[in-house]
Amino acid sequence: MEKVNDMLDLPPDETLYAALVARDPAWEGRALVGVTTTGIFCRLTCPARKPLARNCRWFASAVAAQAAGFRPCRRCHPLGPMAEGDPLVRDLMARLEAQPDRRWSEADLLALGHDPSTVRRAFKRHFGQSFLDMARAARLRGGMASLAKGSAMIDAQLDAGFDSASGFRTAFARLFGHPPHRLRQGSDLLADWIDTPLGGMIAIADDQALHLLEFIDRKALPEGLRRLSAHVGGRVGLGRTGVHDLTEARLGAYFAGKAPLLDVPVVLHGTPFQQQVWRALQTIPAGQTRSYLQLAAAIGRPAAVRAVARANATNRIALVVPCHRVIGADGTLTGYAGGLWRKEKLIGIERGYA
């Protein structure tokens, strides 16, 4: 059988085979190998014995490998989230979960035997931001909780693991668009943290509805928070309402496989067209997916595929407005602002609801 690359942007076979032999984690999420003698496809980091170069075929996605007749390996699970298959990412995420208030630095990564530039590339590929950025966001959580409870600024600063007040304020301002002391004043909307099996989320709500629900590590979160704050005249504070409690309860039931419908009242801040797209997203049942073309047709705008894609990407109420249920026309998982690994997980969870 002639060896061909299934995507033109894959490098030469020799480069991929060298990465396979080295079990190079830099290729996680970028290439898979199919072994013609076994009919199985694997991650390049798979611990199994390596095949001969002449027996390898290379694929850019699991969908392409399966379409060519290969079965997924039972050792490296190439159908699972790519982030979970990267040992470097897996190790550091476990450490971050165990010590969310730790002040990480590049020196810490070097002490663990990791090259900081390799770590940076791996995390940006999987999550859209660096490991140090994710660690900084995790530390901010402690400060948010303290401020919401009325703690003094110095106590909140220490809880968040920052050595200086200016460092804490700078990080907070980067996230919310204004310093933390302003969040202590009277507010119309309140922000709080909600834990989920896929990571922490920021929920912003008033007494009536949810206005924003985003994963804390989403790259565009600061911009989304600033826009919402500007929309309501800066009156976004820290605290909790009954809508936060309802959202947390609905998310818990959803992840437990007990509630396919996240029935939470929402306020959609966007143009009439964006709101039309977001409402259409809410009609997609859990366990089903749609392409951008199908979504455009559903709102009566079949020629507006690109505009629909842009509206999908600007959704600020994750999961409740399920933009993760939109995939490529060829069945591949397209970009998801919360990270493709989360999109894979969410679609996997929802298969149980189908």
UniProtKB/TrEMBL annotation:
Q: What is its EC number?
A: 2.1.1.63
Show the catalytic activity: a 6-O-methyl-2'-deoxyguanosine in DNA + L-cysteinyl-[protein] = S-methyl-L-cysteinyl-[protein] + a 2'-deoxyguanosine in DNA; a 4-O-methyl-thymidine in DNA + L-cysteinyl-[protein] = a thymidine in DNA + S-methyl-L-cysteinyl-[protein]
Tell me which residues this entry annotates as catalytic.
C323 (nucleophile)
Localization, per the record, is: Cytoplasm
- What enzyme category does the UniProt record give? transferase
Key words, A-Z:
Activator, Cytoplasm, DNA damage, DNA repair, Methyltransferase, Transferase
Q: What is this protein called?
A: Methylated-DNA--protein-cysteine methyltransferase
**Which organism encodes this protein?**
Paracoccus fontiphilus
Q: What else is known?
A: This enzyme catalyzes only one turnover and therefore is not strictly catalytic. According to one definition, an enzyme is a biocatalyst that acts repeatedly and over many reaction cycles.
